[in-house]
Specification:
The chain has helices at 38-57, 63-70, 79-102, 104-123, 128-156, 161-191, 196-199, 201-215, 229-247, 257-280, 294-324, 329-334, 337-357, 359-377, 386-413, 421-456, 461-490, 496-504. By secondary structure, the protein is mainly alpha-helical.
């Protein structure tokens, strides 16, 4: 986002990247474009991304039913969400690099098969441990599927209007999939059973496999060498220990030896990860040079904060509807229809807004809308009704999320060398997922603490829950407010993607 256009010199080797061809030609270093069918490729990555984002939120409405059926403790129930987000976010950087090392076709097919198997295991789970393990398996598969989507877009569509439209559609699926997941989770849980939030993935996997076999070419991997397994282990370990330590603050005070020791271990693992990646790794999963472009690091930072706000927002909204307002799963899922519509509308408006007002104004305004919507959610109470208390903040928040996802992704992927496509895609996806996982852990602790305080003050159980959820919404608004300030300070008024947006503004994104 920052003042200069993203650098194209991001290849891992010292040699200069091949010269770009004329407009509309294949990106340098890509052999996919000659044999791939762009329309089918876009359909394939959209199906994969829809499944990945659906499963980030589809379990939210089903959480109470899962907890009652399998005997989850209240403090461990968030791990149904976090096991997926944590495995997903922690392994995304390695997942992006694996696609570059083993080939795009093999990565897509293996990711889809693993996702399908993990979903079937989750559907038949009989204990909390089995369910959490299945969710982690889905997260591992998602860590392969999510980055390959943007990677295939970058190597199939030449930079310009065609790629901008493809990124817009991919981003719209990403932003809308989470809201649609909450809706679908409610329908399946109420009309069938919570287990169908896992079984529903079977037809999606079959469709994805059929499309991938027809559209993703089996070409030589763009990179050679071995994946940076130690870097992935250190990075995932640091994130996992950090989230675990934050979640355990519900039972152990922040100043306790257990909490301080856990958080200290997370910091140590993080430092070891940075040391390994910058000094010793032959083929680091995060090559430091790729973040020298301001658009890359600002885009990654913004999507991390937005991910924290999105995941926490869906989680606490679904719990508020069911635990405070006594909505059933179907009604709670249907309550998210305005959010789905607002996200789709924001995604379609993003290109026009960026072309007219520039990247800084568009992203700042979108993030501010999201923050105000979350602050509005913070005013929900026992006497709130759907029309006056839920629809308004849903529309405001979702419009901001839809615009931001498309504009931020387009900025982060502009000017990327095809040999770095997997890495950049992994960075953006990892930021969103790790931000969501860490944000949910922190905000769950905030909500629990506020609930305990309200109960101690004599509030009823429902009123105490409402106070906890409201506090989480207010803190989420603060997180998105920080993102708004960062966009205002570091996103340039105009950048390369603004010109691309101008060429695609009349098109439906």
């Amino acid at each position: 986002m920052p003042g200069t256009a993203p650098s194209r010199r991001t290849a891992p080797s010292a040699a200069a990247p091949p010269a770009a061809g004329p407009p509309g030609s294949a990106p340098p270093g890509s052999r996919d474009r000659a044999v791939a069918r762009p329309g089918l490729v876009l359909a394939t990555v959209s199906v994969c991304q829809l499944m990945v984002t659906l499963d980030a939120s589809i379990v939210n409405i089903a959480l109470p039913a899962m907890g009652e059926s399998l005997g989850f403790a209240d403090s461990s129930l968030p791990w149904v969400v976090n096991a997926y987000a944590l495995a997903f976010g922690g392994l995304l950087l390695l997942g992006g690099r694996i696609a570059d090392l083993v080939g795009h076709r093999r990565a897509v097919l293996s990711g889809l098969v693993l996702f399908g198997l993990a979903s079937v295991i989750g559907g038949f789970a009989q204990t909390p441990a089995q369910l959490v393990a299945a969710r982690a398996g889905q997260g591992v598969a998602a860590a392969v599927l999510a980055p390959i989507g943007l990677t295939l877009i970058m190597v199939t569509f030449a930079e310009g209007a065609a790629r901008a439209r493809a990124v817009g559609i991919w981003s719209m699926v990403t932003a809308g999939g989470s809201a649609l997941g909450v809706l679908l989770g409610g329908v399946l849980t109420d009309l069938l059973d919570w287990r169908w939030v896992f079984f529903v993935n079977a037809p999606i996997v079959l469709l994805g496999l059929a499309l991938a076999l027809r559209s993703v070419p089996a070409v030589r991997p763009p990179l050679t060498g071995r994946p940076d397994v130690l870097g992935a282990v250190l990075g995932t370990g640091a994130t996992t220990v950090l989230v675990y330590g934050l979640m355990e603050t519900e039972r152990h005070p922040w100043g306790s030896g257990r909490t301080l020791g856990t958080l200290g271990a997370a910091v140590l693992l993080g430092l070891l990860f940075l040391l390994w990646e910058t000094r010793f790794a032959d083929a680091p999963i995060v090559r430091p040079g790729v973040l020298r472009a301001r658009t890359a690091w600002v885009s990654s930072l913004l999507v991390t904060l937005l991910g924290a706000g999105m995941l926490a927002g869906f989680y606490f909204c679904s719990l508020f509807l069911q635990n405070v307002l006594d909505y059933g799963p179907l009604a709670a899922g249907a309550a998210f229809l305005p959010f789905c519509a607002g996200t789709a509308a924001g995604s379609m408006l993003a290109g026009r807004l960026t072309a007219r007002f520039g990247g800084r104004a568009t992203l700042t305004g979108a993030l501010l809308f999201s923050a105000l919507g979350m602050l509005w959610f913070g005013g929900l109470g026992l006497d709130s009704d759907y029309l006056t208390g839920f629809v308004g903040p849903s529309i405001v928040t979702s419009l901001g999320v839809g615009v931001c996802m498309v504009a931020n992704t387009a900025m982060g992927t502009s000017g990327v060398d095809p040999r770095e496509a997997g890495l950049v895609s992994g960075l953006l996806n990892a930021g969103r997922q790790c931000g969501g996982s860490i944000g949910l852990a922190v905000l769950s602790a905030v909500a629990v603490a506020a609930t305990h305080r309200a109960a101690t003050d004599g509030d009823t159980a429902r009123a105490a829950l409402a106070a906890g959820y409201d506090q989480a919404f207010v803190v989420t608004a603060g997180v998105l407010g920080v993102a708004t300030l960062l966009a205002l300070l570091f996103v340039p008024p105009r950048h390369a993607t603004d010109r691309t947006a101008a060429t695609t503004a009349p098109a439906r994104q």
